[in-house]
Amino acid sequence: MMAEVSIKTASRVLNNDPSVAPATRAKVLEAMRELDYRPDPAARSLRAGRDRSVGVVVEGIGDVFVASLVASIESRLSDAGYQVLITSSHRDVSRERAIVQDFQQRRCAGVIVMPGSENSLEGLRLGDLPVVFVDRVGEFPGSQSVVSDDFGLARIAGQHLTSHGHRRIAIVSDSQSVPTTRDRHAGFRQAMADGGITFDPDLVRDDCLDESYVRDAIDQLFALEHPPTALIATNTRLSLGVVPALHLVGRTDTAFLAFGDFPMAESLTPAITAIDHSPHRLGQIAAETLLARLEPGAIDVSTEPIVVPAGLIVRGSGELPPRPTTQNPSAAIPAGAT
Amino acid sequence: MMAEVSIKTASRVLNNDPSVAPATRAKVLEAMRELDYRPDPAARSLRAGRDRSVGVVVEGIGDVFVASLVASIESRLSDAGYQVLITSSHRDVSRERAIVQDFQQRRCAGVIVMPGSENSLEGLRLGDLPVVFVDRVGEFPGSQSVVSDDFGLARIAGQHLTSHGHRRIAIVSDSQSVPTTRDRHAGFRQAMADGGITFDPDLVRDDCLDESYVRDAIDQLFALEHPPTALIATNTRLSLGVVPALHLVGRTDTAFLAFGDFPMAESLTPAITAIDHSPHRLGQIAAETLLARLEPGAIDVSTEPIVVPAGLIVRGSGELPPRPTTQNPSAAIPAGAT
DNA sequence: TCGAGGCATGTCATCGTTGTCATTGGAACA
DNA sequence: TGTTCCAATGACAACGATGACATGCCTCGA
To answer: Could you tell me what percent of chain B has a pLDDT over 70?
Structure first.
């Protein structure tokens, strides 16, 4: 660096300091190009106390919903010149806290968190680290959440099924300790109330931590004296378990509505009706929201949750009529099929 | 830090320096616990010249195959105490090079790359940065690749179809500039040769950069004078395009074999026969391979590609017989369906 | 012509950690 | 008891960048 022209005025050039003569700046830039010089992020981070990186904490990137969420976050932030650090919490709240703390330690400019529970970061001392929660409402001083209208969408989902004549509707979900899940249950209950349907706890399965639990839940639901004629799954991962389970037990005549669209949904028989709370949009808006907070002048940022619109994609499975009351299992096979 | 007991002997404790008295070590550890002290990664990285982080470069994390590959890499490395930096190249080789260079700049302990082409890193000066290529063979001095037996698996796939009587088999793929794709083409051609089938360039579509190109390719294939009776897609993403396309044009009577398994494959009608080159396993082994190279004593590491075993999952679509020769498009609808 | 003022640039210290070398104190040996 | 030696610890510089401050020079006005 010293070879070409000036000494550590180079720093000023890098930081766009206006007090550098245009000629000098040009010379320095030329020299940097020639030497293929790149500033050292570690040194910069150490001295300046900030780093052009953003930490992202999610449950697990393997999940299709999460993958697409993360993809859009990464794409946006990386275009903005940030290095993206992604770590999975594997649904362990203490791990989630530790990861966020580590991100702060690493001087991340900000973090985007898909929280395991509202108060997962409670009591953490993060200084003025900008925090944006995504897909699930989180609580943290000064933070902002980017979510879907879980209550409203679940209510619409429930109403969609009741409007097709269903009165025994089961809901398959993970634990209600997850805020999003709780809201979806609430919306579902509201829809049932709207339709004058009595709440039946037998039809509520909030014990499906992942798709591997779904098979048993489905079996048990159909073993009930009055089995459901319709099902709702509260997240994409569980839908990916429900569909094969219905096929396996030959009960694809059951109406099914998926929370979260997924690949192949339209090619299945029946094609799957889904609430599309676009992970792509969610991620994009979360990234934008964080970027806005990283702007130098960002002071009066809102902390109100941002609700990203979503819609119902009608494809068939959600519009199946209630199966005629019968105890004959052969009715599971649609008439006309060979 | 100075408050409790000793001064910067703490560094020795952190680095497990044997020349620290057990009693002192205990006191320091206690003090660190009490003060919730955590070493600063930036300072450490700056001074020590290495960082407990690993860079991962993939095409795009949104892809289901990639997501699951990355998930297992992340899981393994993060358990080993490494911070994982994930960046997508979006299939841009120059971007890929820049990302890897940036990783080196950041003093990553090593990188895992899903290369856009064999020689994508050619000429890059990375010092002794350990490089592991995954899913695709890459070339770089001292690197190692963790891949599937693309040639062999594609050959098996082709033979599977010919053994069911097909002689007009189309292959749908992305560009053959991707090494993996090229190998799969080669295996496919070999299978055709094995079966004494003349190569027909009309049946080779290597212009499907992503699923959005598939629809047109399928249309054109079926518009041929002698349309194919069977199809192979060379990657998961394209399969996700082929299946809906076949449903759309009502040609699900076409035999189909997917390279790469995917969710819902078994619930489709027909269920999809697939080569399962487990991304989970691939990722895990790539991570292990890199970790082995990060061991202090790792000198004589092999640079031979590691081939991860995979298998054919028979589900139905790949075993459909050739459609009887007819020009009547209504034959596309299986007899007996309404 | 001289001084004030501002622009352009340089000097120095510093971020938190670790490598190198110096220092201390006590045990072991002659 | 004196000397040697080693184990345990401390002092100091340095990694590469930047913030605070100092300096030099040129312009402009009196």
So the answer is: 92
Chain A residues 27 to 66 with C-beta below 7 Å from nucleic strand C: 43, 46-47
CA B2 vs CA B20, B28, B97, B276: distances in Å? 17, 10, 44, 57
Chain B window 23-62, residues with Cβ within 7 A of nucleic strand D: 23-24, 43, 46-47
For A298-332, write each residue's pLDDT tens digit: 666 788 999 999 999 999 999 999 977 544 444 44
Confirm whether A29 is domain-assigned. Answer: no
Instruction: Give the range of the structural domain holding residue A220, as residue numbers without chain letter.
Output: 150-277+313-331
Q: Is B45 on the interface with A (CB under 8 A)?
A: yes
Confidence of residue B50 (pLDDT cuts 50, 70, 90): confident
Token couple for A188: 């579902």
Domain CATH code at residue A70: 3.40.50.2300
Nearest nucleotide over every DNA/RNA strand to the B12 CA, judged by C1': C18
**pTM of full prediction above 0.85:** yes
> What is the DSSP annotation of B250-292?
T-TTSEEEEES--TTGGGSSSPPEEEE--HHHHHHHHHHHHHH
Residue B177 shares a structural domain with residue B286: no
User: Is B42 an interface residue toward A (CB < 8 Å)?
Assistant: yes
Torsion of CA A280, A286, A292, A294, to 10 degrees: -120
Does B337 reside within a domain?
no
Chain B partners of A63 at a C-beta cutoff of 8 Å?
67
Instruction: Provide, as residue numbers in chain B, all residues whose Cβ is less than 8 Å from the Cβ of A40.
Output: 46, 105
In a domain, A167, yes or no: yes
* Same domain assignment for residues B270 and B228: yes
Q: pLDDT tens digits, residue range B210-239?
A: 899 999 999 999 999 999 999 999 999 999
- The residue among B124, B54, B120 whose CA lies nearest residue B82 is B54
How far does CA A218 lie from the centroid of its chain? 25
**Average pLDDT over chain A, rounded to an integer:** 90
B160 secondary structure, DSSP code:
H
A114 and A239 part of one domain: no
- Crossing angle of the two packed helices A279-294 and A64-79, in degrees rounded to 10: 30
DSSP designation for A31: H
Q: Is the CB of A6 under 7 A from strand C?
A: yes
